[in-house]
Amino acid sequence: MSLTFDFVQPQPEPAADRVTLFADVILPLPLPKLYTYRVPYELNDQVVIGGRVIVQFGAKRTLSCIVAAVHETPPKEYQAKYILEFIDDAPVVTQPQLQLFRWIADYYMCTLGEVINAALPAALKLSSESRVQLHPSFVRDSAPYPLSEQEEKIVETLSTGEDGKSLTFTEVGDLLGVASFHKVIKSLMQKDVVFLFEHLSDKYAPKVVKKVRLAHHFVAEAALESLFAQLAPRPKQLDVLMRYLQKVPVYQNEFTNQNGIEKAYLTSAPHLSPSAVNTLIKNGVLEQFDVIVSRFPLDDATQANMHFTLSEAQTQARDEVMRLFSTKDIVLLHGVTGAGKTEIYIDLIRDALDGGGQVLYLLPEIALTAQIVTRLMRVFGSRLGVYHSKFSDNERVEVWNGVLSGRFQVVIGVRSAVFLPFDNLALVIVDEEHESSYKQYDPAPRYNAREVALMMANFQGAKTLLGSATPAVETFYQTRTGRYGLVTLSKRFGEAGLPEIELVDTRKSREAKKMLNHFTPELLSAMESKLSLKEQVILFQNRRGYSPFINCVDCGWIPKCMNCAVSLSYHKHAHELRCHYCGYHDRMPVECPACGSRNLKSVGFGTEKIEDDLKVMLPAANVQRMDLDTTRAKNSYQQIIGDFEQQKTNILVGTQMVTKGLDFANVSLVGIINADSIIHYPDFRAHERAFQMFVQVSGRAGRKGKKGKVIIQTADPLQVIFDKVIRNDYLEFYDYEITQRREHGYPPFMRVIRLVVKHMDQLLCERAAILLTGELVARLGREAVLGPEAPYIFRIRNFYLQEITIKLSREHTVLKAAKADILAAINVVKDQKDYKQARFVADVDPM
Residue 758: which pLDDT band, with cuts at 50, 70 and 90? Predict the structure, then answer.
């Protein structure tokens, strides 16, 4: 991203007939209020709401920020500084976005700055930590413009040391020994000596492809004949020319030469010499030029030609959705796994695009986008954008700008896609709407993308379709009250039926000494049978790593994280111990540091151990693992899913990533290794999550006409939830769960806000929590405030934790007033000298 700085010096007081403008800006900082800056008079016509400007904040710090409002009222509390720089002459943030961002900040009890910081791709943000680097095209000895003494000093520093060295704005100021250095940077940029970026990994630049074409004076037939004769003694160069002409038929149409071909087409050919290509360029036979291209595949809309026909059941469901949209803004599509909801989504997207609107299609996991994007690309081609955190910042900016320009009319993405600059939404689809992955935990804003999507659609007058085989209890409750419409798909698409579910008692297998590692005979036998039929298997274990912990058999020592109150998990392939909360890792000890014994053993099991065990027990099977450890790389999801789709992998072992919406035609067996760890979790949503997870992962089996089977390993097969899973009876589960929620005062009948107090001193943390609880009780009443208490994991990243739970009425006025009381109570505690170092986190609607 290149910027042209026009830093403006403060102007004298304007004459009486001049209008002095002020701009309220959103700084990317956790500030409770907007800050007001003065607009230089000469730039009055350039200021735009939603555009970016550069301002000075504090003594040395410069930041880019978003203009939220323009007016003529100066601030009373301080003298407004001048805006230093106007980056944009058009908004990068739309008015509907600003409205949504204000709602997010208000509802989730955070600041607008925190929302902007989360919403904008890094390449759209600049700060005093922005960096200066030498321009790649700058050659010091042949610079066309003279450099001043200060400019020479910066160039000398950047030229010394390793390639790609850079300086922050702060370092430039320190180097020159002056407070005002922006003019020097501006001058160097104008001379193409340096460029700016936020971080090395965040530089935005369009994707450029090198192309070549035949020099224009060789296009004529006579000139070509002469060229052939000249190159006859040079067969390697002649081969390059002939390959070019095979691809670009200049004889038939000389205008085809103008676009040329990618240079890589010639240099990567196995029988051609790259040096011969470069020689032809050097001698003027070929011309090399750069072309900016999209970072996204299938950018030619003519390739979007996939057509399909909805089944009778799908057509009825689609028609019912459209009918309900005439009276309701939100509709729930409750369809069993494999019912064909995606095809209905695609049909509805087509209708919305035909009407000239935009569409946002949300998915809970990046893994799902890897599979569904291919299908949607074939339908919508270059009109489809994809947005998620595995994309580089360049790619995210390209999608952001594509939505602004109208290039991308439909975007598929994970939760961060709700921040994109839509301004003409017609339809929002939230698939797998029940998923907890839609919830952002840290840092602020701690939003739920499903709720944000609903509000965004409301602001823009769009319709929202929620889809799930196992809807969230709160969502289904809204259909019962009549607020949401409900459409049900009760049968799988085509000939596929629901899988057979079998419970296997691990306790009995262990007593009979029939367990092999962590597999019952029933599951192992079923896997062998399916593999012999060339069918595929998915195994679900909701814990990654090799084992949850190791211990010393002789003295009982267990390695703990130095920053968190948890044991370290053992990862065999990396041969190290890791904390899954803070990332701390240490080498696997050879002997016990407590007693010196070498008798160390791993306890429990995760996905890595299951993968290793299977490779020993079923050596002929190709086993692959999908969890956080194996999907860190950008394209790892696509690679793992692609291998499984192409049946290069026989068994896929994974965490909850494998439970969500994936569609594999050849999977006939799903195994749930340890169901009990999911059910027995200390949370009011534990049974809901367990039911959803079991039903969802079961839904991966028996699609496309194959009869599927699911084996659930459990030590407690009489658990009431299993009966509902086996019968796939969501309604019975809902009736049971909603009764419990009503009786104990949980959502959807109450709003819940969880406050977390953090402090590096355990005693001060407890005292601050007790004081805060007293303040809250005084304002909200004892019945609304639960706690404080230490959570199960009471220390994370060296901070001790205390939790306070607040239950409130769902009435909007009550909630708004309560949030004001909560903030007031937090400020009372913050003002106490002993608790200045305490941190207070508000999580609205925790999951």
Answer: very high
Q: What is the pLDDT of residues 237-281, one digit of tens each?
A: 888 888 888 888 876 777 778 888 888 888 877 778 888 888 888
Same domain as 712, residue 663: yes
Q: How far apart are CA 52 and CA 88, in angstroms?
A: 6
- Taking alpha carbons only, the member of 726, 721, 723, 724 closest to residue 710 is 726
Q: What angle do CA 720, 725, 727 make, to 5 degrees?
A: 105
Residue type (1 letter), 494: G
User: What is the Cα 304 distance to its own chain's centre?
Assistant: 26
> Do 316 and 421 share a structural domain?
yes
- Return binding residues: 552, 555, 561, 564, 579, 582, 592, 595
Question: Do 525 and 670 lie in a common domain?
Answer: yes
Asked if residue 799 is part of any domain, the answer here is yes
HSE of 642, CA atoms in CB hemisphere, 13 A = 8
Task: Looking at the structure, tell me whether residues 312 and 458 fall in a common domain.
Answer: yes
Bond from prior residue into 136 cis (ω within 30 degrees of 0): no
Write down the pLDDT at residue 5: 42
Q: Which phi and psi (to 5°) does residue 623 adopt?
A: -110, 135
Name, in order, each residue with C-beta under 8 angstroms of 104's C-beta and a sequence gap of 6 or more.
110, 115, 445, 447, 452
Domain closes at, from 80, 103, 124: 124
Ramachandran angles phi, psi of 145, nearest 5°:
-120, 145
- Which helix (H) or strand (E) covers residue 755, if one does? strand 751-759
785 pLDDT higher than 90: yes
Residues within the annotated binding site for Zn(2+)? 552, 555, 561, 564, 579, 582, 592, 595
Same-domain pairing of 242 and 103: no
Phi-psi region of 83 (alpha: psi -120 to 50; beta: other; left: phi over 0): beta
Pairing of strands 751-759, 131-134: unpaired
CB-neighbour burial class of residue 112 (10 A; exposed 0-12, middle 13-18, buried 19+): buried
What is the band of 832 on the pLDDT scale with cuts at 50, 70, 90?
very high
- Same domain as 675, residue 691: yes
Assess contact for 720 and 686: CB atoms under 8 A. no
pLDDT class of 1 with cuts at 50, 70, 90: very low
Query: How many CB atoms are located within 10 Å of the residue 775 CB?
Result: 18
Q: 703 with 338: CB under 8 angstroms?
A: yes
In a domain, 13, yes or no: no
Give the total number of structural domains in the chain: 7
The model's pTM is 0.76
